[in-house]
Structures
1.
Amino acid sequence: MPAVPVVRHVDDATVAQVAALADHAAAVDGYRFLSDHLWLDLASGGELLAAAVPGSDHLVAYAQASPASGGWTIEATVHPEHRRADDGLLAGVVQAVLDAVRHEGGGRVTWWTHDVSTNEISLAEKLGLTADRDLLQMRRQLPTGLPVMVDTRSFRPGADEQALLDVNNRAFAQHHEQGGWLLDTLQRRVRQAWFDPDGIRLHERDGRLAAFCWTKLHDAATGGVAVGEIYVIAVDPDFQGLGLGKQLTLAGLESIEQRGVTAAMLYVDGANTAAVGMYERLGFSRARHDRAFGTILPP
């Protein structure tokens, strides 16, 4: 297929077309192809590289690269009506943003594939990308029937931001996507319609924040049924080894159930066997397998 043009900023009409494409794809796939990070960059006019293939009245394919802690994160999809006769659509938009990143000076790139397929594995190889990380989506029904053994309280907007950022960035110091959050990173999420301060459970010890569990509710229109997500769970390194990961997970699940949602999900690194085992012991089972492919692009 012809080369796909790449833009650094998109207009409101294109944002609406990407949102419509995401809705159509979610109705088939059961998930939205753009993560919060990339969607917020798109919707708020943030820095990004975008490649789109237009159709007669909708986008046929779309890929986006957003900056992520010194590198770039890429996500992409093809409209469900055009997947059987792909004609290189996915390859075209992903290649376009890879070329744009190279033009911007190169660096680390990570292409996230959701519910990874053999076609995506083959395409990644052709693009010179290697498997870098596996992410498991795990689910369970609520309630758990298990007690929460630690005290938690709700997040207080205007008072708790810095403490939450400190714990998040210490807990994810080696994580180039979740680590390195700034106040703006947090505030952009707080401004979203789904944000609920009661959905962030904070646990304090020795007069400081020791751990938190941030939950997010997804309505039924997104993936078929209403589901509550363990969105972020972080334990400060000074308080690790005390079982707080398990207890804050239970506190988050209790918060989800108290808001009337009876299905829960979370994402966990497939290589983190200890965490996977803990979640399985808490009644979670594996529901989806995402994979990141990456490389270092020269300028």
2.
Amino acid sequence: MSLRRTVDVPGTAAGWNDVTDQFVAALPPVPSALATVRAPSGCRLALIDPAILAVGPACDVAPRRLWGETVSLAVRDGSPLLPCSARLLVLGDGDPEASWEGGVLDVSIEAADPLLEQQRGAAGGEAFAQAALRTALAAGGADAAAVAALETAEEPSPASRVYETFVARWAEDVHGEALLPAARRAAHHILHLFREQAAAAAAYLRNNDAAVDAGRVRLPAHRVHLVLDNVRSAYNVGSIFRTADTARCAEVITCGFTPHPPNPKLAKTAFGAIESVPTRHAQSTLQA
């Protein structure tokens, strides 16, 4: 079953408008559905907490990756599944702070007939659990292509196992009050696994580049010695090591409480530069 609705959005001088209530009023009382909202011409949609707009302009506090011409939301019993504290906002496209005269939201609602005929069940429950998890992943910043690849992957991965376990668990309990918190926890786990996978891929590239570099003739180092006097942050020190590697500095000398090899945080932020840049540690700058 497919329905189309339109929602009139009044103009505003604030550069944004909360249209959540108008959107909810346009939804039919179906048990489970997927609603796709298209923004008025010249505008964008975002799922964010409007309270953050009190901090600063929408263009600064609302990440652009959260803006889009369309937003898809799962619907349960006539109400959309929204991320915690989030509302559906219409934002000006070109200048988020400029006033606009209003427009029309186009709402497309899709629900399979079996979902309309049953409150629970394997088919409807699975589709609804998937929709809840997709919503939580999108709220966490997951790329739509990565989520699609996760759902269609032929080879199992840690992230796909978490996804499948969640869907199987909640397919039989789609109306439980704990569904949305569980979807957020599963999404958090999946996003962590996504980051681990990206870090592993980056490590492979770094190691591969190091192997390639090993076969090249290394240029002589410049006669530049960097002395780090009580630099507390391991992240800053790692950045300095990377810069020293790029500039072919002769040596990096760490002094006092400056983090120095071996240090797990330093190894993580230096990206292998601590292996390629000569370094030593001294108790004081005078001793160095």
3.
Amino acid sequence: MIQNIDVGLVVLDKEYRIEAWNGFMENHSGVVSTQIKGKNLFTAFPDIDEEWFRDKADTVFQLKNRAFTTWEQRPYLFKFKNYQPITGTAEYMFQNTTLLPLTSATGEVEHISMLIYDVTDVAVNREQLKSANRQLKTLSRSDRLTGLYNRGYWEELMRMEFLRARRSQTVSTLMILDIDHFKNVNDVYGHQVGDQVIRLLANSISSSQRVTDISGRYGGEEFVVILVDTDPKHAMISAERLRQKVESLSLSTAQGELTFTISIGLCGYRPEFESHEEWIVEADKALYESKHNGRNQTTIAG
């Protein structure tokens, strides 16, 4: 029965020599019991972390208590290939291991047994669920068209940056920008081309921003970027670089080459702001000035 159960069984003596090796272990290791009996575990399987395993096993020998290790702590003890078709995405078998003391007639623990459980199905399902949850979390934060943060999540980050700036008295700058004459783009070229223009601008923002900058799509053709720890004077350099980059872009359409421009408003954090909404309003006023003064330009809030 022990030879045929669907669980690995290994018996070790105090010198970590293998004394028993059942059918499960033979099938998955490719080594029959007659070849491996009497061999040192760490010599036969050098992939096993000897120091870690000895710490585990020594407590079983000395304290006569069982010990456990799960796939979440360590994916496997024995590096066996995974051949299950349903969980074929896993290269190796995930394992849970139980170490049990084997007490002799004199009450001494001269041997320990290891039970090796194949938990690949459970592990793969758990990892797939975690991956799905991570994707859902990302989707809940992202704008589907552009991949940038959506308005809800971006504004939450904006609120946190406002509180940080107020607490530390640092200067960050908010950039608001939108596409000039975007309604004409949709009317002349169609909404699909309009979406392409929005994605093209979003890509330009992503590729231009620093790691610390926080960008999002605020709505329609309007975008926002928080330039962390950056005053308006230095933010102007980044804004103008982005504006000029966008001005040089072109998009091939059925009606010919399409170019477009953006207008930008900047506003640095001010101690008199009572909320992040006030900060947004002031940056929006600067954007309006850029529009009013002829578009395709950057204005710093006065």
4.
Amino acid sequence: MWRLLSAVAAGALLLCGLAGWPRARAAVYRYYRHQGRVRTLGGLAGYRTAESGRFVLYYLPEDGDLAALILEQAEAVYERVVAEVGYPPAERVPLILYPDRTALRAAYGWGSEQSAVGVYWRGTVGLLSPRVWIAAGDPAELASEFRRLSPVAHELTHYLLDELTEGNYPRWFTEGLAQYVEELATGYVWPEAAAAPLDPPLYTLSELTRRFDDLPDRPLAYRQSHLLVAHIAEAHGRPGLTGLIALLAEGVPFDRAVETALGRSMASIYADWLDQAEGRSAQGRNVRLSERKGLLEER
């Protein structure tokens, strides 16, 4: 084992020297993602497959009647997601439909506290069977609710960004982009994040960049990332956002890619967004105080 690890490490160092760090990092990441995909798909004992033009769905026989619905929704959001990211996938995107939370958690090594209904991980998109998380009286209602609440657009955004850039992005950016594109494609916004108040102190750019997954107020972190990406898109348009992503695909570090594509530093963009966010928050507090004062006067 140690000889194998030493050989891999030596090969990685040699690659770094010959190809340069950005290209070497991308090559190592591509291998890592490919191995994860092979391992995940190789563990799907008993799963069947169904295909559409751009997706292949893995599912158990008990969910066979949902296969057409899942593929239909994936195809319905595909064009919008590709347009916003600026990249079509190289091959059919693998979707895995897990029959219950136990199977989904086991596939990705999650604990019982995880309750997500979709996940992107190392080249595959995992989905929880909508029967588990949608209370519907009949198949038509289930289909209608799934089209409205489906996580496919969100996870497909993660998939495309990761495949295109080889992981060259901060966590807040991929989560913000996925939420932004999901809202454009389906109108859905995660309710807990949407309800998170923007009262100071908000998370700093450094906190979002360095500690995103460890921040205690997860809905707030997600809301900030969503609004920050939306702010970039509103200020610079789709060409600005896809131009930034294209530079990330070339291996340009995130901060330098932002300055090149948008003509401003990420710190200054965040500062502008923060001023607007805190202004809206203060205005909201004033409205609530005025409403409360009016109620007290009426009493």
